[in-house]
Amino acid sequence: MSSQTGSHENVSDENLPSAQEDAHGAVAVKDDPFADPGLPPHEHRVQDIDEKAARRSERAVAFLFVVSMLATVGFIASYVAFPIDKIVYVWPLGHVSALNLALGVTLGIALFCIGAGAVHWARTLMSDEEMVDERHAVAAEPEVRAKVMEDFRQGAKESQFGRRKLIRNTMFGAVALVPLSGVVLLRDLGPLPEDKLRHTIWKKGKLLVNENTRQPLKPEDISVGSLTFAMPEGLEPEDEEFHKEIAKAALMLVRLEPKDIKDKRELDWSHEGIVAYSKICTHVGCPVSLYEQQTHHVLCPCHQSTFDLSDGARVIFGPAGHPLPQLNISVNKDGFLEAQGDFAEPVGPAFWERG
Known about the structure:
- This protein has helices at residues 2-15, 46-49, 51-81, 98-124, 142-158, 165-177, 179-185, 242-249, 264-268, and strands at 19-21, 27-29, 87-90, 94-97, 208-210, 227-232, 251-255, 274-278, 290-292, 297-299, 306-308, 314-317, 326-327, 329-331, 337-339.
- The protein has a 5-stranded antiparallel β-sheet. The protein has a 4-stranded antiparallel β-sheet with strand order 9-10-11-12, with no helix packed on it.
- The protein has 9 helices and 15 strands.
- The protein has 355 residues and is of the alpha+beta class.
- The chain has 2 domains: 46-132 and 140-189, no CATH class; 196-354, 3-layer Sandwich (Rieske Iron-sulfur Protein).
- Keywords: 2Fe-2S, Cell membrane, Disulfide bond, Electron transport, Iron, Iron-sulfur, Membrane, Metal-binding, Oxidoreductase, Respiratory chain, Transmembrane, Transmembrane helix, Transport.
């Protein structure tokens, strides 16, 4: 029985496929179709052994980056040069906007050349030797982290980033210029507001016109305890800019007893107890329109911000951030109420307080 067992083992050993270890350390089993074949032998590229070929690849990559820079410049120039309504015929697209076509082509070339340059750089000049690294725990040991940093430094060295200055500099130029395309596109958001949000069309000498009758107002037109809405003279509902201007210049007039006015500046800027304040709430810009004559409080119907018109229109309740701006008024030689300038502060929500 023993001899038979030994003979059986000998036969089994002879029939087992033999194991072989290749140059990369991978174990392959002879005649086993499922064995790990390991990594193929590394083949050097022509750029690895011929510096002239490497220089040619470097110039090719730099050329792509330069083309990207020129395309970005062309994008900006097209934005300035082509009017928005210019239509051209381009086969096979037909009639298209010259501006859209120029912007699309130049931006596409700029982005493509950056990508193509990076790919060509990686395929011809960076190290292409494959490496095998065993998986490890997420929390790496200090030795492993040190090895990673060393591999990173080695990879940076092998990428020739420091040596190939032409590639490096042109890549920096291309990557730095491409974002300018987005900056230029911001121009489509409209012209810069500059200081337009800080001013209205009120100015010295502008008559106060009743919003309902369209007639200039006199002091006797406004009784104590009443609320009157006004707008600047010369502003008509038929005007193209009417809604934009009235949204900033809308005015409300209230006549108080001068003895009830607590704020000195408010008293100085009033006429016989008639005070003029912006109608635009300083919370989100709703029209303030609810007046309580016993308390001299005015209420915004949107979020219930409440202002005391006898005390500089200060906020006494609600989410509004600051008082309603006051308009300095007086009476001209003809007896009509007129403005002495613009509002003391920008009207509407308190964006200007964040400056």
